[in-house]
Amino acid sequence: MQIIKAHKYGGPEVLLREEKARPQARGKQLCIQIMASSVNQSDLHLRRGQNLLCRFKNGIIKPRRMAVPGLEFAGKVHSVGPQVTAFKAGDRVMAYSGAGFGGYAQFQCLNENEVIVKMPENLNYLEAACLPYGALAAWHLIEDLSLKDQKVLICGAAGSVGNYALQLCQNAGAEITVVSRRNNHAWLKKLGAQKCLDYREENFWESPQSYDLIIDAWGQIKAKDAQRVLHPEGQFRTVSKMKSRASQAKLQKLADLIAAGKIQVFLDSVFPWEEVQKAHRKAESGEKAGHIALKISPNWNPKPHYN
Q1: Containing domain of residue 68, as a range?
Q2: For residue 282, which of 269, 295, 273 has the smallest C-alpha distance?
Q3: With CB atoms 3.0 to 4.6 Å apart as the test, which of 4, 81, 82, 205 could cross-link to 25 if both were Cys?
């Protein structure tokens, strides 16, 4: 099979394809033929090797244990191990591989009790590959909060985490203000934002408005800045301080919301995996609205459900 591997830390040019033996399903494992993956911030961080702790775990000079990006992916079960009970060959599935990454490959093996579920019927592979990471992160940011009639500010609402946070807050009955580039405002209002701010045109920390919850989907906001427009008993949540609590049960709840039409997946662009370097450059440009998907299987033609 073919994989895309970061042969060293650096820019998108370090991502190159190579051959590797196809994994075999054993025990409780599923062997998944991957149809699509995505490009998100974790994939960029893995490739760059900017985090010293990540380098300590993954290789000081170049990636070793985690050299194949792809934190999330979707595909078809190719084969199952003899102890698998919940899946069968042919099932369409989506998965969050977590610290193992590995989605930039034609095949991947996961245990059936990992963060993997059957895809909702109303998603194609490209859309399903862009759900787990962002939606699970957004769910974790708000799952313990009661947001009915609460005033919420979401910074970075057009990104992989932010757009799901917006949809989940809207479903919970919150009054939502979002921060994003002006060219994203129209579709963010369709998702449920009552008010949109452009961070390039105004300093929203000087606004007279105060909020019950501020969500930092960028991972760049300082708590002292957020406090300036936060109610005294308000909450500040940021992806930069978030510890992963992904689970199969949570991903299944999100799949159920997709199936019920409560949340949607919005694709900014789709790249064949031969153009993975171009896809990473697009992600780093900041010029995107929604998700960037990678089409892995060479003989598959997508039919998007959402525009």
Answers
A1: 2-131+265-295
A2: 269
A3: 81
